[in-house]
Design brief:
By secondary structure, the chain is of the alpha+beta class. The chain has helices spanning 26-37, 44-51, 57-75, 98-111, 121-133, 148-178, 182-190; strands spanning 4-7, 13-16, 19-21, 42-43, 80-82, 86-89, 95-97. A four-stranded mixed beta sheet has the order 3-2-1-7. A three-stranded antiparallel beta sheet has the order 4-6-5.
């Protein structure tokens, strides 16, 4: 089964089976990012209004349909679940998203029932992986100047992920310090 890798921590990058895919249309890339980060079915009208807020509903839906066609052509495969009223990403299609992996690493550590500064080897590995995944802010360098609703959503994601990174680095620093590994503890704290 082909794998679609979506990297949004830093400048957006899309790969299919380890081959980079260039999504030429910014709105199509924005749509893919939104659907990847917010799983489930979404009403077409609301996604069209998110990306084309200055257009009437009919025109916005036409643009949405074109963006989906563009994505299908660029990505190949069956990545979307869509009908006349809703769209979403196929949860069984082999999708990997760095944001999900980052959050899962943090959540698995927070689920352990030990103090946050305990040097649990499992947590140390997961926290290190999470810190490495966070290359830069969410969709760094990307914006849709004609879509304030999308930019607000992107800013909210960026802020939430920055908060999560702070928790990762704080715990990572504490774990290293508890093991007497002061250089990596300081590096995590400084970051």
């Amino acid at each position: 089964m082909p794998t679609l890798c979506i990297t949004l921590l830093g400048p957006p990058r899309i790969e299919r089976d380890r081959e980079p895919i260039h999504i030429g249309r910014k709105k199509a890339l924005a749509l893919l990012a939104y659907l990847a980060v917010t799983p489930g079915a979404h009403r077409r009208d609301s996604r069209a209004a998110l990306l084309w807020p200055d257009y009437d509903q009919r025109t916005a839906r036409t643009h949405l349909r074109r963006a989906l066609v563009s994505l299908n052509n660029r990505l190949g495969g069956v990545w979307f679940v869509a009908d006349r009223e809703s769209i979403g990403l196929n949860p069984d299609a082999g999708l990997w998203l760095d944001v999900d992996q980052f959050r899962q690493s943090l959540e698995s550590c927070e689920a352990h029932e030990h103090p946050a500064d305990d040097a649990c080897p499992d947590c140390l590995t997961r926290l290190t992986e999470a810190a490495e995944l966070y290359r830069d802010d969410f969709m760094a360098g990307f914006s849709l100047p004609d879509s304030l609703p999308f930019d607000e959503w992107q800013r909210h994601q960026t802020e939430a992920l920055c908060d999560d990174l702070g928790r990762v680095l704080e715990r990572l620093s504490a774990c290293h310090a508890a093991q007497g590994e002061y250089e990596p503890a300081i590096a995590a704290a400084q970051r």
